[in-house]
Amino acid sequence: MATAVGEGCPLRACMVRDVTHAAASAPPGAALPAQQTVSAETMPQAIAGLATYATTKMDLRHPVWLFKYPEALAAALEQDGPPDVIGFSHYIWNSQLSLAFAELVKRRFPHTTVVFGGPHYPLHLPDQTDFWHQRLAGKVDFYVEGEGEPAFADLLLTFNDFDRKEVRGTISGAHNLHDDGILYTRPPRLRIHNLSSVPSPYLAGLMDEFFDGMHPRLTAARAEWAARTDTTTNAEAA
């Protein structure tokens, strides 16, 4: 590990999740995509987990910014300037919007490192290489395959000490395309078995702002009924 756990990490990390929350398109000449309609009422728990896990591996000198809506991200980029690292979740339903943001970020802030992660990524190396050349090249610096929490934290730690180009091919689960067109890959991380190693983003207060306009309903634990057959008596019990 390039930086010991607990040492200060000066990176300004900015992440955006599932921007399909807005059924948006970028009009010609627009600086950044703008929201049109809200199309989903879900919480950005996945990227919040990346943030809380990262805090267990390093002492971030700057907060991790989480975004649910495209216009909020656009406003932050306009007002606060470029982050050192920006991450996008990548699903089949938000692929084009995430790529549009990534392209615009790279065009305006070429020194910002763009990281993608999510299931909308080919499984086999030849297809992954084509995917990079056809869709990601020039827009995305790293794509995290598989478990995102440890790989993203390792990327942040490594970025803290090394030039981005020196990171290529060194982080398990992080893929990146070299200038010569060769795709550098490492095997994905194993699944996290102890989920308590990812601190709750709800208890950390990272999710509070995303309850906007919602009326959460709290219920006691419900009994989940199912039928089973007792093999000794053939009697069914609930």
TrEMBL record:
Keyword Metal-binding assigned: yes
Entry cofactors: [4Fe-4S] cluster
Name of a matching Pfam family: B12-binding
Keyword Disulfide bond found: no
Record keywords: Iron, Iron-sulfur, Metal-binding, S-adenosyl-L-methionine
Record-linked Gene3D superfamilies: Cobalamin-binding domain
Domain B12-binding residues, every copy: 7-166
Molecular function terms from GO: cobalamin binding; iron-sulfur cluster binding; metal ion binding
PANTHER family named in the record: ANAEROBIC MAGNESIUM-PROTOPORPHYRIN IX MONOMETHYL ESTER CYCLASE-RELATED, RADICAL SAM SUPERFAMILY PROTEIN
Protein name as catalogued: B12-binding domain-containing protein
Organism: Streptomyces dangxiongensis
